Amino acid sequence: MSSPCGFSPALLREVLPAIDREAAATDQDGAYPAAGVAALHRIGLLAAPLHGLGTAPEGADGLALALRLIGRASLPLGRLYEGHVNALRLILRHGTRDQIALGAADARDGHLFAIWNTDDARAPVRLDGEVLSGRKVLCSGAGFVRRALITAEEERGAGPVLLLLPLRPGEGADLSGWQPLGMRASASGAVDFTGMPAPPQRRIGAPGAYARQPDFTAGGWRFAAVQCGGIEAVLEALRSHHRRTGRGSNPHQAARLGQAAIAAEGARLWVQAAARRAESGAPDAVAYTNLARTAVERAALDVLELAQRSIGLAGFMRGHPLERIARDLSTYLRQPAPDAALTEAGSHVLDTAAEAGDLWA
Ligand SMILES: Cc1cc2nc3c(=O)[nH]c(=O)nc-3n(C[C@H](O)[C@H](O)[C@H](O)COP(=O)(O)OP(=O)(O)OC[C@H]3O[C@@H](n4cnc5c(N)ncnc54)[C@H](O)[C@@H]3O)c2cc1C
């Protein structure tokens, strides 16, 4: 059945086994899940944000499900698709009619969009007139993605400008520094923009559009949804291990499996509630998302520990499903400013007039 936003969960479930196999096969530095991106294009997911998936309130549940399912099969692909949705959302929100039409045509043609914000501290990206200089790091899809939204500072600027750049394959990309524990196939390398032109028609919205609140922080529910898919993959690896080895009925093992199931379901409920709150523009969406991402991170760390203690050393051997997923998930859990996210939510709780029990009613 298709959701109102051009997303069919049934079609996505059909392509997940191939995405899962590709995730295992591309667990290498410099790799990129090209077949997975093509599959998402085939089933309409690259264009679905144009129909409201992650870009309109009625697309909240659908995107939460899509991100969880993709993340369950491949955290690197989930990361890439999350960036695609975010980039299209920014273009739809802040772009001119022509920019939106061009972006929509590209998405329909199968282009994956990226959003790259993190600067190389030694050479932050700057825009002088119409020419760029500097490098971004942690650019998922570096060298592969052909449409990138990037932030750039201008002299005496009123916040960073957002630029939509067409890129040639490999242009400016350097994957040599991307040698992480996990998420290897997200190709999150550096990109050097020095000398690249950025004429006015490449600017999306007013300066500061990228980090405009509440969208910027509340959008954190999307990475939490992908992480939630990773938690579900760990739970599946644990359950399969018990079924295979016949150890699951041991009371200690059964208790740990039960605790892992509680954590996974808690994460799913947080993600779903945060998605609805953020996408409907609720005034407390920032605080709620900050709680949700913190709860999902905790759930992930708990489920990883439970699975590793339950499976034991076998789960640390290359080739065991848990081994790669645990590396991918623990790497992808590292998101910006987790301490600030929790303390912001704590301040909200402290300062809100409603009774504590009615805070989110
Ligand atoms: C797989 C992957 C893909 C990514 N892809 C992209 C991408 O495509 N585009 C993009 O823009 N970014 C991307 N990123 C980067 C991401 O957006 C974050 O920048 C990054 O994950 C932050 O992680 P961190 O642990 O370094 O965070 P940090 O915020 O540095 O947190 C590390 C620790 O320091 C603490 N801390 C933070 N600030 C301070 C402070 N001022 N003083 C004291 N302590 C502090 C935190 O609370 C935490 O304990 C990606 C990240 C990953 C893992």
Task: Give the CATH class of the largest domain.
Answer: Mainly Beta
Order of helices and strands: HHHHHEEEEEEEEHHHHHH
CATH architecture of the largest domain: Beta Barrel
Structural class: alpha/beta
Q: What is the mean predicted local confidence, pLDDT? A: 97
What level of helicity do the residues show? 40-55%
What is the total domain count?
2
Describe this structure in words.
Residues 220-330 form the Acyl-CoA dehydrogenase/oxidase C-terminal domain. The protein is of the alpha/beta class and 361 residues long. It folds into two domains: 9-202, Butyryl-CoA Dehydrogenase, subunit A, domain 2, CATH 2.40.110; 215-353, Butyryl-CoA Dehydrogenase, subunit A, domain 3, CATH 1.20.140.10. The protein is built from eleven helices and eight strands. Strands 1, 2, 3, 5 and 6 form a five-stranded mixed beta sheet that branches. Helix 3 (60-73) runs antiparallel to helix 4 (75-94). The chain binds flavin-adenine dinucleotide. Flavin-adenine dinucleotide (FAD) binds at residues 79, 83, 114-118, 138-140, 183, 186, 188, 331-332, 334-339.
Core attributes:
2 domains, alpha/beta, 8 strands, binds flavin-adenine dinucleotide, 361 residues, Butyryl-CoA Dehydrogenase, subunit A, domain 2, Butyryl-CoA Dehydrogenase, subunit A, domain 3, AcylCo_DH/oxidase_C, 3-stranded antiparallel sheet, 5-stranded mixed sheet, FAD, single chain, oxidoreductase
